[in-house]
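Morning run. Coffee first, then this:
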Amino acid sequence: MNVLTQPFFQHALLAGTAIALAAGLVGYFLVLRAQIFTGDALSHVAFTGAMAALAGGYDLRLGLFAATIGAGLLMGGIGRRGRPDDVAIGSVFAWILGLGAFFLTIYTTSRSGAQGGAGTTVLFGSVFGLSTSQTQLAVLIAAAIGIVLLLIARPLLFATLDEAVATARGVPVRLLGFGFLALVGATAGEATQAVGSLLLLGLLAAPAGAAIRLTDRPFHALALSAGLAVTEMWGGLLLGAEAPELPPSFAVMATAGAVHAVTFLVRPRRTALPAAA
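And here it is:
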């Protein structure tokens, strides 16, 4: 039986491609801005938000997006210029983990009979279990994230590389910081469906880290990060489909980790700096 003709795989491939594309674009700036800890915190926020929604009897996607976007903006608000520091992130991190344990207890003791596997689904993803409507929504949200990121890419890059000069030139650095964190939160909520909250940091960081190692041209690296994320998603889905004993989220992350490891064996060609006058 050809797995490519199966509806479950076609849904996973379509949604996974869109999610990986958005994660690759957002992840590049996440790595470039040294905000990986933010992504790590949001991965736990995604779990807490989903558990809160389930405990209240709501769709877990509502909790995912409300929690991740809200937490991203909160961390930006208590940080500097919309760019949270480690202390701010750590404070939110600890608080969110406590709430996650609380909502998990409520869910498992009162509502888990109706959706017993939902907690596992949030932790490890369920990309092979997406319905047609879920796939369409995932594609639309991921497309919106990618379009917004590309629209703000140039000023965001300026603010990332030289914040002081960008501020002096009138770039809305703080507003861009908040906007970017909202995009990171939305991407975290979206990627949880594919790889789960435990592993989504890998989808955000590994392709971008590999791209930055391979080229120092910002927009080339941005495109490469997106391309690597999509390719790794495809490879992981094919591996997961051909070897059913492997969870697809693990297969995707194993592929991403292998690609990133290979980049350490490659000596990238760096752009020569112009000679001093």
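The chain has eleven helices and no strands. Good start to the day.
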